[in-house]
Amino acid sequence: QKEVEQDPGPLSVPEGAIVSLNCTYSNSAFQYFMWYRQYSRKGPELLMYTYSSGNKEDGRFTAQVDKSSKYISLFIRDSQPSDSATYLCAMSLLYGNNRLAFGKGNQVVVIP
Amino acid sequence: EAGVAQSPRYKIIEKRQSVAFWCNPISGHATLYWYQQILGQGPKLLIQFQNNGVVDDSQLPKDRFSAERLKGVDSTLKIQPAKLEDSAVYLCASSLGGLAGPGNNEQFFGPGTRLTVL
What does the radius of gyration of chain A's CA atoms come to, in whole angstroms? Predict the structure, then answer.
């Protein structure tokens, strides 16, 4: 079983729709949860991070963590064409080595 | 603030040839990472340096891959000899510290080197 599972299927949505992405994980030692955004031909950039269960909002983005289910989600409200990118979930231990375990990523296309 | 720099951006080689990639991290960042990102996959850590020492190289195929960070700043990653399955984007990242936890955890990525092995 992979440490982090992210269904890599592409997602096309009309502008203004809500985008919902999720990952599951198997390592209960993961305590630090991140979402990275990667534009084509670019390196990943950190979008949001959290280290507790519950919701965290940042503008149009909401990250949700459910540690009991080992499940994390990212919601994008009022999606814009500029949100078209690949979204990768990533996790690490809260303390110790800073190794990130990534999901496969979801390619999101927002159609104007 | 300048970001993580990598070169070359693209490289095409034939199998069994050797290749080297270069990375210059953000100034002041003690920790440097090399990741391999195969098409359709998330990045996989190959090696992590703390200053010029290796912290984690458990996923580095040591029979063909090597990396160094001699003066604790720039780093090079080498593949010798290359195989078809090495075709991927090689990402370099850096962070202030090497330990997990908020504040010094954020890893900043470079644009990557896209390697094609024919």
Answer: 14
